[in-house]
Predict the structure.
Amino acid sequence: MNSAPLGFFDSGVGGLTVVRAVQDLLPMENMVYLGDTARLPYGSKSPETIRQFADEDTRFLISKGVKAVVVACNTATAHALPQLRELYRVPIIGVIEAGVDAALADPNAERIGIIATRGTIRSHAYQHALAQRRTGLIIHGQPAPLLVPLVEEDWIEHPATRLVLRSYLDPLVEKGIDTLMLACTHYPLLIPALREVLPADVRLVDSATTCAEHLRKELEALDLLAPEHGEGKLEVHLTDLSEEFETLARRFLKRAPGRIHRASLGGAS
Ligand code: DGL
């Protein structure tokens, strides 16, 4: 079982930021990644639809024999994690718990800003998780729907992105946030741009690296870590294939993703 792959799913290729962080931390792990590119984005869809998609994504990964499922999508974690944990026996890890723990690891964190898709902010999943762990926090959730397309267009350095970031972040800065949670798969790629528009003392917490650390601890506790020797393989499945997705996948992963398979969520792949 320890050599079985870890399964990851996301609405698209953004969840590869989580895969990359896990590859850096746990290079011996085999991984299967599913990106539901045929139906993205998830961030603007209703909770019911997200739950249905997340269920199909999870079943696909389980059919690949994974030892644990990582919901590498903030929107899917926000809406579907409790339901998935009820339905399936395989360990299921989301991105929210780890991000919240990391944000509150600083005992002085008091004013927390969250940027995410509309769906994640509306779910209040982050806001509830934060408030449950520490009383007296001042939490500001800011939907930032334009950031995903800007990252996908590779407009990271573009002045338009700076402008959009300022429109989203200035109100949070005015409210005196000390911590900003990057609650979306795509945002780690914006860290250099975010650093430019935010005051230097605002701490950034990204869900990819925090999730990787959380996953390592969970696997250790469950005695499910892969044997130390060897290098793990990554298998990427997408529900829609296009040249753009391949290029994007390379950018998110910072290396070639290998052959990408076309996934059909009806059962066969
Ligand atoms: N993966 C989504 C998330 O982390 C962003 C992209 C989408 O809206 O599907 O919330």
User: Anything to note?
Assistant: Residues 10-12, 14, 40-43, 73-75, 117, 120, 148, 184-186 surround D-glutamic acid (CB under 6 Å). The CA atoms of residues 169 and 198 lie 8 Å apart. The beta strands are 6-10, 31-35, 68-71, 92-93, 111-116, 138-143, 179-182, 203-206, 234-238, 260-262. The chain has a mean pLDDT of 95.
